[in-house]
């Protein structure tokens, strides 16, 4: 109380230190705002890629159900292609296979014709997989570099804080804790940007691998169907066939016990 009275009597106000994110950014100037803006752009770009790729993958999985339920019920590949959505990955494989079939008759060697059709389907798969993988390198780059960008902001902030402390001639805890704590905020922001990007990259990659497996199996079925002139087709799984299989599995033990 005596100190406050003496300070008021002397007309001197007690010094007040203002700490916070905005204060740190204002003191950091152009460098701090540039680093923060870079991290914001990286975060927005990561979530944009995550959402768009997730929608694209869900669409491919949804279209695959139509392939399994209706495509192989058609008499020919051309007829089955009309049941698939245009500009879809599955329609692209069928169209490329039909185009390769139209060209393979020009080859006199049967082995070369088979290799030609197999190579055409492989190229089609590769183009689809490349399209699915677009944008994922950005997620990998964000996950790898965002912590270091945030650390750069922290280093610059601590350097600035040490200079101010040296100019003030005092290294008390109230002059050290605030500036250093504000500088560490940039590292935290960098981690908040990097962690979601890494998780999104790994998740999308695993889903792309599953799509790649489905595409490879579908192209193999198409190649077998073409080379066998429509005789070889995969088993179409429907709700009716699943129910019939379950009923047969239940009645089999009963029949065996009676025997």
UniProtKB/TrEMBL annotation:
One of its GO terms (biological process) is protein import. InterPro entries: ExbB/TolQ_transport, MotA_ExbB_proton_chnl. The chain crosses the membrane at residues 30-51, 138-163, 183-204. It is a multi-pass membrane protein. It holds the Pfam family MotA_ExbB. The keyword Ligase does not apply. It is found in: Cell inner membrane; Membrane. Signal peptide: none annotated. The keyword Chaperone does not apply. GO terms for cellular component: plasma membrane. Residues 92-211 form the MotA/TolQ/ExbB proton channel domain. Keywords: Cell inner membrane, Cell membrane, Membrane, Protein transport, Transmembrane, Transmembrane helix, Transport. Its main location: membrane. Belongs to the exbB/tolQ family. PANTHER family: BIOPOLYMER TRANSPORT PROTEIN EXBB, PROTEIN TOLQ. Involved in the TonB-dependent energy-dependent transport of various receptor-bound substrates. Protects ExbD from proteolytic degradation and functionally stabilizes TonB. The accessory proteins ExbB and ExbD seem to form a complex with TonB. This is Biopolymer transport protein ExbB. It comes from Croceibacterium soli.
